[in-house]
Specification:
This protein has 220 residues and is of the alpha+beta class. Helices cover 39% and strands 23% of the residues.
Length: 220
């Protein structure tokens, strides 16, 4: 992946300016954000609870994450996280950012979430890689409390953790610890290699988010 030169940066900034004029991203409660509009230079590739991600068609190694107005304060927290983790190969590179967006490295591969849906076996050494990446992030002063199957990407024999939006938080609840417990006690002995319906995974996600929201005032 190559990305250098002021001309490419200027081109990307201009394209992002057009993207922000042509689309809107708004929050939808507990569910994913709603995206309205489209831009010919970008393809919508994913939505979260606070942002949407678009892939550049002209510079396909770039993904642009656009936050909803309610969550723009999270932009600079995520920028700080990327700066702290800079140079660690288990995380994407940050290229540009603005008041409500980040332009980051697009990672080719399959998420652990899609592996579960497609019945692709997840070997245990990938779990170990995630543990090592999380440990490195903690050593650099980060708090990766929101690591889950959707933001862990498998590319060949390597793991990349994407979405650092919560890495500057002070939460003590770690989703990864809970998912690792699921992997060892349920997935590995019983579900390895089987396809898990998307509806089942999404229902589990929504239930978890609801309980997390209800319990949040009591978490210290």
């Amino acid at each position: 992946m190559e990305w250098s030169g002021e001309n490419l940066k200027k081109q990307l900034r201009a394209e992002i300016t057009g993207l922000l004029k042509n689309i809107s991203v708004r929050t939808n409660g507990l569910d994913f954000v709603i995206v309205e509009g489209e831009d010919s230079n970008f393809k919508l590739i994913g939505c979260g609870c606070s942002s949407a991600v678009f892939r550049s068609k002209n510079q396909p190694w770039i993904a642009v994450k656009v936050y909803s107005p309610e969550h723009v304060k999270e932009v600079f927290l995520e920028v700080m996280a990327y700066q702290k983790i800079k140079g660690v190969p288990s995380f994407p590179r940050l290229f540009l950012y603005g008041s409500n967006y980040l332009a980051i490295e697009y990672i080719e591969g399959t998420s652990l979430y899609d592996c579960l849906i497609q019945g692709i076996e997840i070997p245990e050494h990938f779990i170990t890689q995630v543990d090592c990446a999380i440990a490195t992030a903690k050593e650099r002063g980060l708090a990766p409390s929101d690591v889950h199957f959707k933001n862990i990407i498998l590319n060949g024999d390597q793991v990349t953790l994407i979405d650092l939006s919560d890495y500057m938080s002070a939460k003590h609840v770690s989703r990864w610890d809970q998912l690792k417990f699921f992997y060892k006690t349920v997935y590995k002995p019983f579900l390895r290699g089987y396809k898990i319906p998307k509806k089942v995974l999404d229902s589990a996600r929504k239930t978890y988010k609801l309980f997390e929201r209800l319990l949040n005032p009591f978490i210290r």
